[in-house]
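Incident log, structure service

09:12 report received: a user says their structure output differs between two submissions of the same chain.
09:20 pulled the input from the user's history:
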Amino acid sequence: MAFLARRLEGASVAIVGAIRPWPVFALETVDALMLESVAVKDEVLALSKEGSTRLLVERASGNVDRVQIDRSWELSAGNPLLVVEAARILSEEGSLPEQYGTGGARLKGALLLSHLMAMPEGTVTLLRAASILGTRIRPRVAQFVAGMEADGFAAAFEVALAAGILRDDGDGWAEFRHALLATAITEDASMVQRANLHARAFAYYEDTNELSAAVAHAVPAQLHGDAHVIDLVIRAAGEAMVEGAVETCLAHLGVALTLSGDAPADELLEKLADVSFLGQGPEEAHQIYQRLLRRDVTRETRTRVLAKATQMLVYSGLFHEAKDNYDLIIADCGGFEAAPVGLLVEWAHAVWELEGPQPALDGLMRRAVTAMSAEDHEILSQAIATYKFHSGDISGVAEVELAARTALHAIDTGQLDPAASFNIFLLHVSHCGALERFVEAERYVKTAVDRFHSVGALQPTLALQFCWVDMQYLRGFPLTAITIIDDLAEEVEFGPLMGPLYRGVRARSLVLLGRLEEAETERQAALRLHGSRSWYARILLDQGWANQLMAQNRVEEAADVYDQIEDLIRRLHIDMPGIHPWAGEAIEVALAAGRLADVDRRVSWLEEHSSPEMGLWPSMIVLGGRAALAAAAGHHDEADALYAEACEVPCPLELERARLLVRYGSWLRRQRQPTRARPYLAEALNLAEERGVVALGELARQELAAAGGRRRSGRTPHELTPQQRRVAGLVVSGSTNREIGEILGLSSRTVESHLATALLKLGVRTRAELRRRRNELGLLN
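09:34 re-ran on a clean worker, output below:
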């Protein structure tokens, strides 16, 4: 052919041929002809998607829908041989296989035939070794796995590049041009060949201390039962956990379990259960703990594992079962005086969920009188301070705050167990929320959540974020609460313990927004979860139900619900008003029902159990309640003075304040003082409208109109302000609240407020929906 090519000058003859890049002599011959300007080499490129589609439609009989066109492109990557084969399969079977399904054997076979036919032996050896490393490889690893000398490997590698099977991906990496080809080459090897190659890959990565990479080859290399290999895999899992890669850690432990066969070590099962709780949830962890408990283990191991399994029952919302288990474990340890402090703290959590703070406190106090280490004493003291706090004693707040300030380092160093229900940050944040220290609470939530995220600890993250969500609702930002909850729900499952709490806050927020059907759906879903047995969840859900009844003007029924809530609060001795700020709404409902004795009793309870150190909310509610009672008794001057004083309290619970403003404004109007009433009613209306609170806003609007007041003219209620539009646009572009705050110079709270209001005005529920509908809503990236 070369001889002829050099002698055709001037003749109307051309030689057209197809040549592969091997053997090397043939390629060198063509290159020489090109240098002599008697030949031109043209590389055959893959078909474009359009060309691939035209070929597929032409060769396949019948119509080819878009799904099959897309799948053909995915499988063939523009290889004409594969497109033709795909058309044949479509004609015969009506559909194409999934990319890596077993039904793709014919396509893989065609691909192998087209690429490896007449390939040099060294190149086939190289490709077989490379294929078990994945679609993207490091050549030096492939050389070790292939067992080839440097020169032979380099020549084989050049052929693979020239043939278009591999391509240089830069930075010392190469990549298979076709992912299906890598799979096909691997599957074309015998089982023994594959196992040997994987074993060599495992050895390479072990030698270079790339443990996670080694793990991927342990099972394919058939290294089952090898204690050294199992230990290496467990070490790799530990390294992943330190990096916060919980899913990777779980996957590695699963490999260790597979390699261990029917008799995995006790330590491996316990570690797998511990990590499963963080990455998958309490149900999966509990099953593994139970498997371990069915073994003949030491008493110490049994006690420890049984305590962990019981803790999973708590996280599953099975409080009665957990308490019974804890009682047995504590008795087996020699009673409260001898039981480990960590065990008692977990027991106290289960008891608190069921019976309130006092029984939990009593049990912990029994342990406090016996000797213990300084570390145990500190933990016990902080737990006692928290349960005392719930009972109205705030003397331990400073101790918990100091511990929270010094505990951040403990997360990073692994000294703080992320699975434990005793979480010093959660204790401090809940104290801050109850005492209206919201700025401090936000700072700790943000910081602690970031740290727990870094170690993959889901449960403490959810608990901390719930505290923040609940505070958004209490401060009068229902839209913000819903936005945070919906964003979280796209990423995680709340689980049976936290689910009722999140759903409860979402239901109450929906009631404020006038979306009653959705609220009832949320409440019913929450009641079906085991965690709704907790008194805390029960009060939250009952308050939501009372809110719904009031929105439906079923006042007497709502008043009955608050009677039940009050009875539970008193029976459990929940004497810290801010733990569940129920009294304000309870007084409003009792006033609406005309139950003045209930109002008096609840105001007296609030007076008895509050102090200036507990925040401004209780004093505002007490003054407003006393004002209402004075008004009902006809003591108008006293009522006026008390109402005015209550409205001067700078309470951060702004919807509670808005309710008081409406009540005072309405009373003034009925006292024929409309001019004085208008500012209070106008402020209440603005507060309600800014937050999308429908019923309260409508009541304020009606009262303001009756008092002769008018709304200020301006933009329509559904029109975004410039700042709201800027925030929404940045969300569409993918920015986080923190990033938006930095760009616009706003606090996270302000960003959340602007976003929540924008979502309401636009009729959008979540960030994801906002992004999907950005063009429709006129929000461009």
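09:41 both user submissions now match this output. Likely a transient worker issue. Closing.
09:42 reviewer note: Residues 44 and 428 are 68 Å apart (CA to CA). The radius of gyration is 35 Å.
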